[in-house]
Write a structure and sequence with these properties.
alpha/beta, homodimer, Spore Coat Polysaccharide Biosynthesis Protein SpsA, Chain A, five-stranded mixed beta barrel
């Protein structure tokens, strides 16, 4: 059976302000020394498993030209433009309906565009296992990440019995508090929810129809119109009418017959500026420093310099990110509060900085 | 007797980098909300005591135009240009010799250009007392600041018996360690050395002749040439030949007959970026924030913003100073290390940033 990949690239990446902007979010940035952007890496690492012509990018209409520029080898008709932001469930329904127009059935992998994978061979082998499990039934398969510490920023997957390397999912749980996360870790029965899914078109369409019939109806209309002159009009009409819904809440938490494949392949969701020191090489003082920077006596500090000189003197656990029109200076404990800066900028009508 | 003031304005203000630069050091900057520069404030606060035509500015030749621009009311011939940096003793000898050409004798106050005074009336009264004491003999008078805490960054003056409000100076001591500073404070017999001096021309010239005869000889030649066509040539020849010497070491630590007038007038030497929160009004989170800044959850933090937005997120005890071509991010414990940034810039040949 044909294997296809759908890369979700509609996010705003607000926690990576000031580099990530409305006009160029995180997935289109390079945060590693090799220079590739996050979405370029995402596509490259899939090529051992999927033909480039079977890779689909779903993104906001505003980012179509960024995708085309960064990924010229992806067929133009595979770049699916959401006319509005409606979270992951409508995104997946849209992509599934479009691909279903092309193939009676196929395996569809759904992958984020802004994560990093350290061990790509293991990643590919994990996906292959998931594809095999998905092909065998009308199930939904999710990649669960073997947890390394009691992270409170991720959702968890509670799994049960094993069958051919796949584990039955008992339930999805929201971000836990620390004692709960510690219990999960100690139990050995929980994985991190990575947001990577594998299923047949027939399986996901059936689940959408049962669990989100309103969205199913619109998605089918969009799929039917794909490739016709009416497509754009139908897409705008149906997609903008969708309610916002996450795939986790709309489908995964309610569906039966879900399996998880545990993966341990150096996954990093690159969730905040804290990730930069994890995904790059630090110096002997545990600093990660790039660009036009002089550091004097700083430790455990991340500085992403720009054109102007940044002098970092006597700092500890500080993150500095310089851009042409804004510089962020943030304590490592407060990386989630970068969103509050954006909220203040919006309130002040300073949209050029958002 | 005529009272004159000599304002020493040749410093580099390296600890105020990146605002203070070789091309425009600290004394020519405004560090307070009123917009006046340090040297403008210094001149203004003297006017109740000295005629503007009796105020002399000694500065590096490179800063003559800055002085003329910021202090247009000072007579051009009162701006004395040092052809080289030779510390405070040659600076004072130069000024004394020049003023001595004009007056047989006069009182000469020597004052830094980059300190702040909170209580200007008390300051003027303290100087008046010093002038009175200086007029009465061949002594040297220094203003000692009543210490408020065991500061280890200042020199101290150990004083003895009182006579008409002036205290005999027993000795000058270098910057002490903390236990010593605590002892000084507890003894009640020590004042901070403020670097403000008052004496008659005849008194200081006599001391220079006795204690630094080499410098005396050159200074007399410079004074003799003042106002003649040969002045510039003589100044360059004699001044550049001076050794570097501080007034504290060259004169004050060796002279007899020194008195101190204790002063308590809200003196601040504005010695580092730490001073900014002392000399300005802070907010309810003890932040001092000016310019283009968004602060989220920061405390005890100083941000001097520039053109670009600075976002300060979750910071504590951090100082940020933005300029067009460089931004400083410094922990409050490390403000003395700003000089090390300048040293590194010089090593790297990046003199445009120094």
């Amino acid at each position: 059976m044909k294997t296809t990949a759908v890369i979700m690239a509609g996010g705003r990446g607000e926690r990576f302000w000031p580099k990530s902007r409305n006009s160029c979010p995180k997935q289109f940035l390079s945060l590693t020394a090799d220079g590739d952007t996050m979405i370029q890496k995402t596509v490259k690492r899939l090529l051992p498993l999927v033909d480039i012509s079977d890779i689909y990018i779903v993104t906001n209409a505003a980012y179509i030209s960024l995708v085309a520029e960064q990924l010229p080898e992806i067929p133009k008709e595979n770049i699916l433009a959401e006319p509005a932001a409606r979270n992951t469930a409508p995104c997946i329904a849209f992509a599934a309906a479009v691909i279903n127009k092309k193939y009676d059935d196929a395996v569809m992998m759904v992958l984020p565009s802004d994560h990093l994978i350290g061990l790509e061979d293991i990643y590919i082998n994990t996906l292959k296992k998931a594809v095999k499990v998905a092909e065998q039934g009308q199930n939904l398969v999710t990649i669960g990440i073997t947890p390394e510490y009691p992270e409170t920023g991720y959702g968890y997957i509670n799994f049960g019995g094993e069958q051919d390397g796949a584990y039955k999912v008992e339930r999805f749980v929201e971000k836990p508090d620390l004692p709960t996360a510690e219990k999960y870790l100690a139990s050995g029965k929980y994985l991190w929810n990575s947001g990577m899914f594998v299923w047949k078109l027939s399986s996901i369409m059936k689940n959408i129809q049962e669990l989100m019939p309103d969205i199913y109806e619109g998605a089918v209309k969009i799929g039917d119109a794909f490739g016709t002159p009416q497509f754009s009009d139908v897409l705008i009409k149906e997609f903008t009418a969708f309610r916002s819904e996450s795939v986790d809440f709309g489908i995964m938490e309610k569906a039966a017959d879900i399996y998880t494949i545990p993966g341990s392949f150096g996954w990093d969701d690159v969730g905040s500026w804290l990730a930069v020191e994890r995904i790059n090489k630090t110096d002997s003082d545990k600093n990660y420093i790039e660009g036009n920077v002089i550091s004097v006596g700083s430790e455990h500090t991340t500085v992403c310099g720009g054109k102007r000189l940044i002098a970092a003197v006597g700092l500890e656990d500080i993150i500095i990110v310089d851009t042409d029109d804004a510089v962020l200076v943030c304590s490592k404990n407060s990386t989630q509060d970068v969103k509050k800066v954006i909220a203040q900028l919006k309130e002040q009508g300073r949209n050029d900085l958002v």
